[in-house]
Amino acid sequence: MNLTLHVWRQSGPNQPGKLEQYDAKNVSPDQSFLEMLDEVNEQLIKEGKDPIVFDHDCREGICGMCSQVINGVPHGGQERTTVCQLHMRNFSDGDTIYIEPWRALAFPVIRDLIVDRSGLEKIMQAGGYTSCHTGGVADGNAILVPKVDADYAMDAAECIGCGACVAACPNGSAMLYTSAKVAQLAALPQGKAEAAQRVCAMTDAMQEAGFGNCSNHYECQAACPKGINVKFIARLNREYQKALFK
Amino acid sequence: MILDGKCPKGPIQTSWDRHRFDLKLVNPANKRKYKVLVVGTGLAGGAAAATLGELGYNVEAFCYQDSARRAHSIAAQGGINAAKNYPNDGDSIYRLFYDTIKGGDFRAREADVWRLAQVSNNIIDQCVAQGVPFARDYAGYLDNRSFGGAQVSRTFYARGQTGQQLLLGAYSALSRQVKAGTVKLFARTEMLDLVVVDGEAKGITIRDLITGEIRTHVGDAVVLCTGGYVNVFYLSTNAMGCSVTANWRAHKKGAFFANPCYTQIHPTCIPQHGEHQSKLTLMSESLRNDGRCWAPKKKGDNRHPNDIPEDERDYYLERKYPSFGNLAPRDIASRAAKEQCDDGRGVGPGGRGVNLDFSDAIKRVGEHTIRERYGNLFEMYEKITDENAYKQPMRMYPAPHYSMGGLWVDYNCESNVPGLFVLGEANFSVHGANRLGASALMQGLADGYFVIPYTIANYLAKTKPGAVKEDHPECKKSVEDVKSYNNRLLNINGKKTVSEFHRELGKIMWENVGMARSEETLKDAIKRIPALREEFWKNVKVTGKGEELNQQLENAGRVADFLEFGELMAKDALHRNESCGGHFRVEHQMPDGEAKRDDENYCYVGAWEFKGVDKEPELHKEPLTFENVHLAVRSYK
């Protein structure tokens, strides 16, 4: 199939950017979206032009590096799918595709489709852990964890930290991302002891890093490639309220 | 030179405990005077940086991704081994040790493997304390499953994302230390040189991948946790950014490269679909707990797999290895799959595939249970192939996955360059010639959490902190060397892209130094790789500048290193005139096609010393002795 691409090109954080048009020819339906872009880049390099830069690494949907808004939707709109796992069979011959970087106040563009997501790191550093030391911990079976709690924690822990939730949110909020870690650790006995400090520290860090607040649009859940549920945001709010009384 | 692994003598059961007592310590007040550079933030690097920071050292950690959470350990699916014996099925430290030595086809050091088995149990406890949501049973206890090469269930798991969860555990510990100020994190940086001062590793030169700045960081010790090199095959299950670069540049500064020919070809990967594919995707070995491997009995049988009746199917692993069945180790399962396809009985496009069939398991335990066990894997399979594996078998073919070889280290994980430590997949130490499933996660975390904190102190205690400063002539020279190397790449301005060269190299490597190697194919590779390298340096096209974000330049440097490393890999494979584990020389096989070792002549670690590009590397040997496990023919029948 042949496609027309409109790709966001921006040479640096403080430079103006614009959409440039490219042709993608003879695209195989079995190719992944990034493989299609690879081919466009190969052509650009041969013509002596700067290839489109984009973040990517594992190409199996788990590292969370890839980050593109395709036709207005983070990761391209196929349910529970990252860009790298999006395949060209979801497009048709003659399609026009718009490709842009994550758009959010807290994610400044570094170049083309690459954005700075270090705000997410700050949130994690504020409290996304249990303060256990290496060594000297109890046997793994010493503290039982009911299966429902372990499963619930795992549902939250599946977050890959890509930031699609932020890109999808009209407020540029990182609430889904933050709540996934808060909920995972609050649900487990190992994380419960610090639950109150954690939820306060992480939400503070979220605001300091320039992320907006949640006003229940649920766009984050729709865009999340791992299907992280907004029920974790409700959990965060509950944990936050509990913390206020401590 | 005969190399000494400096393993503790005496009874193996107490070897690590005695050794730990003999190691020097650094007192708490002095720890903060030392700076340790940790390169890579996967399981080994993340765990090491977090633990060393917690102990009080000043740590600087580096990764090429935009976050420490994205290292490729994250992609490991199936699980992590430990000798907990929770299921009461006969496991013990001794059995994990034995299985790992045997699984590695008797090409690993006994003492290192014993230590790994011993600390495996601490790892599980540590991860649980961090909040890793391992699978639990209804009573709240940790659950286990089985993996290849073992007859006990010792694998702990978190759905199909165990690597992700363990890495996020290490990343959380690391984040805590960043907050505490003991670890400084440098994301989006790539190590391009090792700084050696008076024979000891004292710094690294890195490129800031955003600004293109090239600068040196000095430290009192360097810890490389930079993963494996199977992207030398171009198509592999590694992430796109995985490379041999950090290890190779250290090798060029004197670190020996051990057993580069030991590469693991994983039996269950989604077959290649076309010429323009950029990577291959693995499907966890855990699937072989419930999936049955088969190929049609008839050659060229093009019927839909569901239409092939039971008696016309060859469940080749169950037939050939009745006691281990579908859970035969990876090297053996891969060769068996290739054998079926070479015999003209492969399935799918080009006949390069075998079936992995879940229909019996679905009949036995129901689709719901299978979905609970492997749901995300089935989903991923469907996204890539557009086929529903609940309704028809998966198609699988072996693909490069892991490298058992790596930089040579002694029992302390220290390379032959004092002050340079190497952990995880980047070193060669515990997997011998073949790694068992769920053992990579175990090794990465063992090295990072429980080995390096002890052994690095022994080195640091003997050195003066802060002896080398950024303005040392060696640092300046290193920066200049890296700059001029990059400028050379940028100024060639040829006609072929970096990927085209990488793909060509990959083809040579896969056909000549892949699953089956012979004197003839290896000699052919040794002839063709230098020629391709020469062409690369004349005809590669790298656009853009050095002082900016330039992904072409990053890739060019990595491929340039693969073009040198590939030759060493072929030379090592040629010199190792035997078959063992993942290294299969067609000249050396049993009548039934199994690998035939030559213990009399090759029971050693082959560690290569760099003598210059286009010069013959020098081989050093470390003899392997087996006192606790008897050297025997490895059988899974």
UniProtKB/TrEMBL annotation, chain A:
This is Succinate dehydrogenase/fumarate reductase iron-sulfur subunit. GO terms for biological process: aerobic respiration; respiratory electron transport chain. PANTHER family: SUCCINATE DEHYDROGENASE, SUCCINATE DEHYDROGENASE IRON-SULFUR PROTEIN. Residues 150-179 form the 4Fe-4S ferredoxin-type domain. InterPro entries: 2Fe-2S_ferredoxin-like_sf (IPR036010), 2Fe2S_fd_BS (IPR006058), 4Fe4S_Fe-S-bd (IPR017896), 4Fe4S_Fe_S_CS (IPR017900), Beta-grasp_dom_sf (IPR012675), Helical_ferredxn (IPR009051), SDH/FRD_Iron-Sulfur (IPR050573), Succ_DH/fum_Rdtase_N (IPR025192). It holds the Pfam family Fer4_8. Keywords: Iron, Iron-sulfur, Metal-binding. NCBIfam families: PRK07570.1.
